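Translate structure to sequence.
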């Protein structure tokens, strides 16, 4: 298994979320006609959202405070940056393709342009992955929030078991977290 870890600082949760996207797989599913369209509505108001997640094209985090986050995308063997995880979500699937993985705020899906300069290019080694993620404090600092994507390589497409109906709602001002 390839060991990897990418840390992206100051990633803004545009429209209260962040998405990891395989742009080539998304293009394969929908063709180039999606460029300039509102795929966020398509994914959030129809079953197409589930389709792209099950296909391994998108892993979204929805319902987080519109804030800047440190985002770590790492293999399971690499150390986490989120020291005090407040919420987790498991059972996601991602297909990494060379040069095709990006990280972006959900707002960028409202007028989709895979080449937008605000997207973060992530060089995830090609292959299938089971993905879990957590949100919490970076280095145990309660003023510094982070997202930790944990990738486990699989020889073939893993089963999608994420609960798409479960709200991830995590807001920094919540007293209960």
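Result:
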């Amino acid at each position: 298994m390839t060991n990897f870890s990418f840390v992206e600082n100051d990633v803004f949760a545009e429209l209260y979320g962040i998405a990891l996207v395989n742009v080539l797989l998304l293009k394969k599913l929908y063709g180039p006609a999606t460029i300039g369209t509102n795929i966020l509505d398509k994914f959030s108001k129809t079953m197409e959202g589930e389709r792209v997640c099950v296909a391994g094209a998108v892993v979204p985090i929805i319902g987080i405070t519109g804030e800047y986050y440190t985002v770590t995308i790492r293999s399971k063997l690499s150390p986490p940056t989120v020291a005090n995880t407040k919420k987790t979500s498991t059972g996601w699937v991602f297909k990494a393709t060379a040069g095709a993985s990006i990280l972006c705020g959900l707002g960028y899906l409202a007028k989709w342009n895979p080449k937008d300069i605000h997207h973060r290019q992530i060089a995830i080694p090609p292959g299938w992955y089971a993905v879990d993620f957590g949100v919490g404090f970076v280095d145990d600092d309660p003023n510094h929030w982070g997202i930790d994507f944990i990738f486990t390589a699989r020889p073939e497409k893993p089963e999608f078991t994420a609960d798409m109906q479960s709200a991830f709602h995590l807001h920094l001002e919540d007293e209960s977290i």
